[in-house]
Amino acid sequence: MSSFAKNFTKGVVRSNPTFVLMLGLCPTLAVSTSLDNAIGMTAAFVFVLVASNILISLIHSFVPNKVRIPVFIVIIATLVSIVDLMMQGFVPALSKSLGIYIPLIVVNCVILGRAEAFASKNGVLDSIADALGIGTGFGLAIVLISFIRQLLGTGKLDLFGHQLFSIPGFSDNPISILMLPMGAFLVIGTLLALFRWMGVIKND
Question: What pTM did the predictor assign?
Fold first, then answer.
């Protein structure tokens, strides 16, 4: 397996930020009430992660060790500001729904962690593979959680204003607790237990 494929696969499975590392759970818990939010957060997260990994990989050898963390944060904050302004301009409804969780990407421990632990020590291509893998792992996790919460919590599945399908009879009496904050904990906990029981995801 090539280095690129190895780094990508590791981010999706062995280092999945949600189900293995259990990092960045705040946005996952908060915005996973709909597929719209999940897709929007994934797009913002992946853009910032990939772009920051590329930039940090390119400049890390020129940055003094004493100021590397502040420099990384400035780069990430700039990218997040770009994403936030673009979402406000082009998808204002989604931007309003995601709210404060877009600006909070600046302090997301997954992005800063990959910058410090990987991008600052590896080449551009490997850093891109790492970012895409971690981003894909995050996206798959939050989309799966959102799918379960929205479908069982409302009895139907909507995507950007279009109803994909509904469960006949169930939409009148859904498991509405899944749309509450504690519902996210229940879904994540159940998925963690299921994946480990199946051996799909393991901690090294």
Answer: 0.91
